[in-house]
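haha ok so turns out i had the wrong file open the whole time. this is the CORRECT one, sorry everyone. sequence first:
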Amino acid sequence: MEEKNSDFVKSVYENNEVKDVSEAFIKYPVEEEWHEGKVENIISEPKEYYSVYDIGDIVFVKDYEYSSKEKGNNHLFVIIDKNNMAVPIENIAMLISSRIEKTKYSFNKLLPKNETNGLQVDSIVKTDEVYKILNSQILFRIGIVDADTIELYKNSYKLITKDKFNKL
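then structure:
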């Protein structure tokens, strides 16, 4: 049975708002994050590897090759939805950053570290941009975020984009 895309996924694709994950690596350098993009800074013991990821999963996305052929490092993202019509399936995600001083911006939502989400430091989720991530770009899952929190992130994004398009 074929799954249908959510209204959220339809909207972000129709409005051409989904960015390639490579843009996150360019705009938000991992050198500014506590983990510095290094796997060994994220995990002290082996994590479970999956071939399928779910909404709410916090994932470590592997390095990106820039157009200059230089390798970037890794970033944390939270999967907020899925594009089920794409092959392979695309995960729709938001960037996680340890730069909690940026909570002064209303679109950055605090995500305190805990055992469930697997974060080692309090972080923020940048709800102003969404990215597409393929399963092949994910190194591993470190934890999860509950469904209510995912809805908070989506609603924040909807509010931001509504304001953005109303100003045009």
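Helices lie at 7-14, 21-27, 39-42, 147-167.
again sry for the mixup
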